Amino acid sequence: PEDWPTKGAKYCLQDLRAGAKFEEVSREFLESSPFPSKLGDRKPRILKIETIKNTALEALHEERTAYFREKHGAVMEKELWHGTSPAALSELLTSGLQPPAD
């Protein structure tokens, strides 16, 4: 929608080079899900990890977190891994996944 808070938001991708954070994200991803049986006992090899920097989405996340903290006294966050169509990436990186209305 035209009045979306992230309308026109800018983002950049930052390459997460090999190091402690790269290893942490790789490990958590590989442990998060079984992989197709055609891989046998092998796991996929991760070639690259990029983080997204979008200050508009970060601000919305902080606002939403503060709301839940005030309403429920605490916030529990969980990382979820999922795939998506390459055609959807630009919209997701700009607008994010909008939470349902309360």
Description of the molecule:
The protein is mainly alpha-helical. 37% of the residues lie in helices and 8% in strands. It contains three helices and two strands; from the N terminus they run E-H-E-H-H. It has helices at 20-32, 55-72, 89-95; strands at residues 12-15, 50-53. The protein has a two-stranded antiparallel ribbon. It is globular and about 45 Å long. The two termini are 19 Å apart. The mean pLDDT is 82.
Features:
102 residues; mainly alpha; two-stranded antiparallel sheet; 2 strands; 37% helix
Secondary structure blueprint with pairings:
Layout: E1 12-15, H1 20-32, E2 50-53, H2 55-72, H3 89-95
Antiparallel strand pairs: 1-2
Strands, count: 2
Q: Would you identify the regions where 5 or more consecutive residues have pLDDT less than 50? A: none
* Ends distance: 19 Å
Q: Considering DSSP H and I runs of 4 or more, what fraction of the residues is helical?
A: 25-40%
- What spatial form do the alpha-carbon principal axes imply? globular
Question: Numbering strands along the chain, what is their spatial order in the largest sheet?
Answer: 1-2
* Major sheet attributes: 2 strands, antiparallel
Strand-pairing-aware structural class: mainly alpha
Strand content: 5-15%
Question: How are helices and strands ordered from N to C?
Answer: EHEHH
Radius of gyration: 17 Å
Task: Describe the structure concisely for a colleague.
It contains three helices and two strands, in the order βαβαα.
